[in-house]
């Protein structure tokens, strides 16, 4: 059984050779935490006092303003970051999808990038070879798949990356939204594959600013604010608290 168990976890980033407070502020804005004052070296408290237990079947959305700590929390869950204090125990094979372009090489072909990206996400070469035709059909890139990735537009790169990402079989899927560069028709097609991907995953944690995606893919949510969990519970309750209105009802009335 897959699980994520985080107990009183902190993630701190020491800032060495900071020359001015303006530098500290710039870093703080990116990290989403607070500047510690009890050290000669400035410390960015990116996550503070995180307590979280997620079990098999969890479908969790992460909400919060830019810099609130959503991406840092995802990286803690993936093992990229280790807690400075506290503990983070992850059971299961993690597929971190933080940037659709990570693991792709602009100098090699689309076909070769399918293999490279799949291996980066923990799949075997044989598994990816079995998926190449399906990914090619989904991406609708045709002969471009034989050309170097640097010849692709941003939208074409996202199509290829989405094709690979939605073909994997993760136990824990950590997804940071990055799908805005594709056209609406293709995005609708991608949603079907995303839903199937979520169904195959033992657990989903999805950081997104899209209420529609969150309602479609998640049943609970975590509101992050300045590196802390502000609220954790049913998706509707958390979205209402974060947005100050009944988002789920609004979406239902539009359809």
TrEMBL record:
It comes from the Bacteria. Keywords: ATP-binding, Nucleotide-binding, Transport. It holds the Pfam family ABC_tran. One of its GO terms (molecular function) is ATP binding. Residues 23-251 form the ABC transporter domain. Signal peptide: none annotated. PROSITE patterns: ABC_TRANSPORTER_2 (PS50893). Belongs to the ABC transporter superfamily. PANTHER family: TEICHOIC ACIDS EXPORT ATP-BINDING PROTEIN TAGH (PTHR46743:SF2). This is ABC transporter ATP-binding protein. It comes from Pseudonocardia eucalypti.
């Amino acid at each position: 059984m897959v699980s994520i168990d985080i107990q009183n976890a902190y993630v701190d980033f020491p800032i060495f050779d900071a020359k001015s407070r303006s530098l500290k502020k710039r870093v703080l804005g990116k990290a989403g935490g607070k500047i510690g004052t009890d050290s000669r070296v400035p410390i960015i408290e990116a996550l503070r006092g995180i307590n979280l237990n997620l079990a098999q079947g969890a479908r969790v959305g992460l909400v919060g303003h830019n810099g609130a700590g959503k991406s840092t929390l995802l990286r803690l869950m993936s093992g990229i970051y280790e807690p400075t204090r506290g503990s983070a125990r992850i059971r299961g094979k993690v597929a971190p999808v933080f940037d659709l372009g990570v693991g792709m090489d602009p100098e090699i072909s689309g076909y070769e990038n399918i293999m490279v990206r799949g291996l980066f996400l923990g799949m075997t070469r044989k598994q990816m070879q079995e998926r190449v035709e399906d990914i090619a059909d989904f991406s609708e890139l045709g002969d471009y798949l034989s050309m170097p990735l640097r010849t692709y537009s941003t939208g074409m790169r996202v199509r290829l990356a989405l094709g690979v990402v939605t073909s994997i079989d993760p136990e824990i899927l950590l997804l940071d939204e990055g799908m805005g560069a594709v056209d609406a028709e293709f995005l609708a097609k991608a949603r079907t594959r995303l839903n199937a991907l979520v169904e195959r995953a033992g657990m989903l944690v999805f950081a997104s600013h899209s209420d529609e995606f969150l309602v479609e893919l998640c049943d609970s949510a975590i509101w992050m604010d300045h590196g802390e969990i502000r609220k954790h519970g049913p998706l509707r309750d958390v979205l209402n608290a974060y947005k100050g209105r009944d988002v789920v009802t609004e979406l239902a009335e539009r359809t």
